[in-house]
Amino acid sequence: MKHITSSAREPQAWIAGIIRDFCAGPANTLQDATNERAWDEPLIGFAAGDDRLWQEYKEYVGPAHWTPAEIFAATFPDVRCQPADLSVICWVLPQTAATRRDNRQETTYPAERWARSRIFGEAFNTRLRIHVAETLSAAGHEAVAPHLSPLWARQDSDRFVISSTWSERHAAYAAGLGTFGLCDGLITPAGKAIRVGTVVARVAVDPTLRPYTHHRAYCLFYADGSCGECIGRCPVGALTQAGHDKLKCQAHLDQTRAYVQKQYGFEGYGCGLCQTGVPCESHIPIAGEA
Ligand code: SF4
Ligand code: SF4
Fold this sequence. Notes:
Blueprint: H1 11-23, E1 43-48, H2 52-61, H3 68-75, E2 87-94, H4 97-104, H5 112-138, E3 143-144, E4 154-157, E5 161-164, H6 168-174, E6 179-180, E7 186-187, E8 194-201, H7 220-224, H8 229-233, E9 239-240, E10 243-244, H9 246-264
This protein binds iron/sulfur cluster (SF4) (2 copies).
């Protein structure tokens, strides 16, 4: 096995290389007849373990929402370290042009490529989280993927209906990778048709500058009251000017299972109609684009 060591001088480049190399490998597949690539080139960002946002999330989402230091300490109780010794490594996996094109044409159920990316693309994302955590740990930097921790849990929330102990999209926001849209999706420089992954590690990395000051900065609806095109893309009315109805959305996702099985022949689900056919599909939208 190739031995990978960290670079004291450029840990960002070392870690980004681990992520990029894995994405360029054979595991990044939709598992279709031609093993088509599931994801385009990843975007990568880093957040500091002592960023003020972690405490703000805890206060805003609820006390059960972890700071990086909490999930690290729960995973490595014998390792003494301070929040400032930790970094949160985040990546964005953009849907391919072919997957976005297919889903753009749908009005009720997901295109096959989209459903495959939801299942097999996310299985790749799981492998990527494990690979990053194991590679860093092998180089002496204890690391955990919070989303894969046996301690990770969803919970009912008075404020958010459903919340969880760790939100990868909120971590990506902290790592400068994007801001939230009307539909709750993260609008990134590669758009909103994406998935996110994260690892918390005891490694010193310069945090990525956040090029925004507000968590809704990139969404045209919040910026200037225009757009709202994701509202019309939702087949079940889960999106309104008031935001995202998670329960309606979840009910529709559950319903897509039978369709995916019947039409595409595998166990899966998905939707993502509000992530395609909208100005923020593949880039940060600009004023007047809607
Ligand atoms: S489609 Fe328009 S309103 Fe909806 S998230 Fe994107 S920019 Fe915001
Ligand atoms: S994922 Fe589908 S059901 Fe959920 S809000 Fe978007 S369009 Fe609506």
